[in-house]
Amino acid sequence: MKRLAILLMAAMCLISCNSKKTIKALLPNVSGKAGEVLVVIEKEKWDGDLGDAIRGLLADECPWLAQSEPLYTLVNVAPGGFADLFKVHRNIVIVNVDPQASKEGVAISNDVWAAPQIVLQISAFTDEGAAKVVADEAQLMTSALEQAERDRVIRNTMLYEERELYTQASSIFGGAPHFPTGYKLKKATEDFIWIADERQYTNQSIVMYRYPATGDPQKDLSEDAIRAHRNEVMMYNIPGMFENTYVTTSEIGAFTTESIRYQGRAFVQTRGFWEVENDFMGGPFVSHSQYSQDGSEVIVCEAFVYAPRFDKRQYLRQVESLLYSFEWKNK
Are strands 184-188 and 118-124 parallel, antiparallel or unpaired? Predict the structure, then answer.
């Protein structure tokens, strides 16, 4: 009898899971441009202090670019105009100001009207309360939107993957990110690999390299160590167009490091700007530095962008997302 009950519970769970998958599969694909957020709010609130608070968070200057670009491109729609056409947008923020609201805060939902979609609902009793919610939950909101954008890039990458590139990179380093159609191998040695999607006016690149580890993170993963090894590797492996030119780390702009844990992996994320010594090329980069599985080496995956004619926010966001697809080969 006990065994029968367990089997029935397992069957019900399977049916429930399959039902959810079926419902999700029936949802339409999301609309809207990457990096765009639809904000559902009354126009008078959007034009007032509450709108300023939302714009101050989501349309603030993107912090890792040399030129001024907003973190997200915002589109306002009034609740009365929030029809089916807009409900399939990829990123939606709904502002609900109601004295009868059950509580104040931010609720996050996925795949409500389309897939893959994220919906953030801000609830508050007053406009001032909603602005405070935006300030208090700023990290939650931006992190959720960033993760949703990242997940879409990774999802499309896995659907249209150049699998051979993962095989080549992981055979050298024991693991690697995944790469979508369009990326091609530019250079590979026993300690370095360069894979890029090169177009007429843009270049989105990922490089991987390694250096010996001491086992002391304060030494191996410090800002000084990361910068020094980066400059040495780039100078040797990525020459410029002319004699005595090579890629290096720019002294102009911020060079920041941050410890991150993501899906069981711990790494140090570095942001900065690259430039070509004795030339005028440059752009943003972001890298992930982590220990190898046996701890004997530091493995670095770096994404960088060159797009002199275009805004760079989405180019960097796309290629940076690939770093988060990293997988160890034996897992």
Answer: unpaired
Both tokens of 47, joined, read 């034009």
Sequence-separated (6 or more) residues with CB below 8 Å from residue 48: 127
Please list the pLDDT of the chain residue by residue as tens digits (331 residues): 445 444 445 555 554 555 455 556 689 999 999 999 999 999 999 999 999 999 999 999 998 888 899 999 999 999 999 999 999 999 999 999 999 999 999 999 999 999 999 999 999 999 999 999 999 999 999 999 999 999 999 999 999 999 999 999 999 999 999 999 999 999 999 999 999 999 999 999 999 999 999 999 999 999 999 999 999 999 999 988 888 899 999 988 889 999 999 999 999 999 999 999 988 899 999 999 999 999 999 999 999 999 999 999 999 999 999 999 999 998 7
Q: Identify the burial level of 33 via C-beta atoms within 10 angstroms of its C-beta, where 0-12 means exposed, 13-18 middle and 19 or more buried.
A: exposed
Q: What SS3 class is residue 299?
A: strand
Q: Give the CB-side neighbour count of residue 15, counting CA atoms within 13 A.
A: 6
Whether the Cβ atoms of residue 316 and residue 303 lie closer than 8 Å to each other: yes
**Residue 228 belongs to what H/E stretch?**
helix 223-237
What sign for the dihedral angle of Cα 5, 10, 13, 14? negative
Say what the pTM is.
Answer: 0.89
Helix (H, G, I), strand (E, B) or coil at 322: helix
Rg over alpha carbons for the chain, rounded to the nearest Å, is 23
Name 209's bridge partners.
Answer: 192, 300
Would you mind telling me the total number of residues written for the chain in this entry?
A: 331
